[in-house]
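Re: [ENG-882] Designed sequences occasionally contain unexpected residues at chain ends

Forwarding the minimal case from QA. Structure tokens:
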């Protein structure tokens, strides 16, 4: 898997991880999973690496940092629930995602269609864990109580490549300010 994403600042990352751990503990859900909270712009099977690096080196330093607005908690279907923090689509966020989409058009392979600009729903996912519908309902209610509306600063974009061999690549590109 390859993804273009933004990691959250360390203080926000730790805060969101702690909310997840506390909520799953209070709901008596084991194996809550470790995760780095992140905002994903695009997922693909692969990229032409030199082309991607050149694109990100060119477009990301021209961008200014911006804040995302987090609004509560969301959940996918109950049978196989996945929890997430919805992100409001702001102009800087949408422009960045659309720019990444357009600029990588000729160098990506096997793109995940849910990241097309018209279909993309920005969110920060919690880890996937197996649970019963009752556990999912309890956890949803707990997360809803614990998550408040927040503004989180986004200061960089990263390209992450996870290979079946276990070797991962990460490259980070910082915004102008």
């Amino acid at each position: 898997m390859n993804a273009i994403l933004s990691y959250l600042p360390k203080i926000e990352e730790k805060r969101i991880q702690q909310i997840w751990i506390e909520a799953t503990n209070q709901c008596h859900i084991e194996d809550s999973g470790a995760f780095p909270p992140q905002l994903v712009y695009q997922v693909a099977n692969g990229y032409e690496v030199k082309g991607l690096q050149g694109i990100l080196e060119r477009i990301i330093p021209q961008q200014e940092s911006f804040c995302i607005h987090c609004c509560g908690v969301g959940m996918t279907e109950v049978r196989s629930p996945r929890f997430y923090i919805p992100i409001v689509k702001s102009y800087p966020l949408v422009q960045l995602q659309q720019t990444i989409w357009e600029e990588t058009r000729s160098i990506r392979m096997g793109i995940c269609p849910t990241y097309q600009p018209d279909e993309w729903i920005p969110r920060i996912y919690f880890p996937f864990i197996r649970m019963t519908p009752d556990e999912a309902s309890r956890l949803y209610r707990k997360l809803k109580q614990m998550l408040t509306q927040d503004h989180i600063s986004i200061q960089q974009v990263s390209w992450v490549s996870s290979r079946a061999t276990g070797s991962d690549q990460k490259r980070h590109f910082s915004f102008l300010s």
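QA comment: On inspection the terminal residues look reasonable. Strands lie at 2-7, 38-47, 66-70, 74-75, 83-86, 108-111, 123-125, 150-154, 156-162, 168-174. Proposing we downgrade this to a documentation issue.
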